[in-house]
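USER: For my understanding, would you kindly supply a protein sequence with its structure tokens?

ASSISTANT:
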Amino acid sequence: MKKLAMLLLAVLVPVLVHAEGLAVSGKVGTLGMGLELTKSISDSFTGRLGFNTFDYTTNTTKSSVNYNANLQLQTVSALADWYPMQGSFRATTGLYYNNNQFSLVGKPSGGTYTIGGQTYNAADIGSVNGSVSFNKIAPYIGLGWGNPAAQGKGWGLVSDFGVLFQGQPNTTLDATCTNQAVCAQLQSSVAAERSNLQSSLSNFKLYPVASVGVSYQW
């Protein structure tokens, strides 16, 4: 997949540099906030390079555990658009460099809490750390509206709706132990909890992509 991504970039970048018709778009959607550079290849085709990002951190307490969670959305895209009727409707395919990930740190705030079906005293565990990530190279297919690089376009509206094939989520989970008497059992519980987490995330192989934005061609 990495070789395919490099090949696509090698084809698109020279085209974007030399083709007529250049536009920039600002977008917001399920991949966060983004910027795209679009170049016209012909009346029926355009190429796009883009970047999306969003970062969100929250803190909550559940079952006597204080959780600090961070969601990081970060993608780089290389896309090709086909306008079958040479209008605004388009079909899109391409690749994303997918650095989307989620991390979680939990520390007991008092009492007990449960890991893998086993209950532990808060004093026996320092913290629980987990993360979820995905395949770095993710194919994309979708439909959209708007041709930012159309001749004489100026300002315009753009939208995209599609699916990112990000693969089976990769999960990690570990816990620090402060009581040697329960360390072995704790590691077994963590392994069971990680297995449950991996299973519960199995339906997230596909990530829905939806965005709207404003474009400008100079």
